[in-house]
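User: I'm new to structure prediction. If I give you an amino acid sequence, what do you actually give back? Let's try with this one:
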Amino acid sequence: MNPDVPPDDALLYLRRRFGNYDVKEFLNEGYFGLVFQAVDFRTGISVAMKFLKLNHDRVILAEFDNENELLYKLRRKSHVVDWIAHGEGTVPLVSQPHERTVDIRAPYIVMELAEGCLEELVVHRERLSWDARLRLFRGVVLGVHQMHLNKIVHRDLKSSNCLVLRVDRQPTAKVSDLGRSRDLLIPARQSAIEYLAGQGDYRFAPPELLWMQGVDKAVVWQLADLYGLGSILYELATGQGITAIALGSGLDRIAEVKNLPPRARKARYESQTSDLRLRYEDAFDKFRAELPQGIANYATQLVRQLCDPDPARRLPKIVGRPVRVQDGLDWLIRRVDILAKMNKHASQ
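Assistant: Good question. You get back a string of structure tokens that encode the predicted 3D arrangement of the chain. For your 348 residues, that looks like this:
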């Protein structure tokens, strides 16, 4: 989790006190923040502190504030990284050309400290049993389930946005990095046109967003999150997101349609759905090849459903009736539990 060389800005925060916290060690750099290990000097408990980057713009500031608000709303949920505090300090910055020291605002969020990131385990997945992988995946599913029940969608699911902690001595994954998430109970803060292609990582984005079919409706984002969960399971097997394997460069796909009128984009996407499904089959074959034989068919069927190019087909039918997306992900948690039991039985 520790980069060899922290960015220069990180040195401004190290060994300084902000509120009740002494910053000890640089951990990671994200899109809009710098993350440190810190210690609450009152209790001696280690925490994570995320500071807003100094060179931020309006969009980055909005995402930082959004993450703070959503983590606060989701505090004490078992599988979303826990919010502890929020505050603001200052850091000294030497201004040019007069070389005067100026105090710069340093907003921060305090969260529970993780042992690492799920992406790091994906890189070394050969060291993980499938029992461990499915346990970690279940944690991510449960975190998204808790978000959806609280009318929040993530919109940028991937292994690098999940943290790994120990709960009852067992490693478990929690959902994190909520800067691009959306509270469905409040009006959108950005125009609809800004979300035609979403704002997440296009290597992991659902195909409908690469054809610029994003609409600011709850069901659209909830079904996109289902795709993201399928992609995380795909990562745990192959080390890569399924979109990059099946479709190549997401930016190239967007470039092909961005100048078309909305109706033409929609018509092109709908006309290519069958072809896309065939392209995904090649990706599913790669997934299946990485799985133990005892769970290969069931797990591939699950990923095929979650990552279907037609968003409406990502939900199952139970007793002939489709599950409602607003009811949460109990059905998916049960399927992960079935996978875990199948794997345990096959390995005995």
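You can read the tokens as a compact description of the fold. Here is one thing that stands out. The mean pLDDT is 92.
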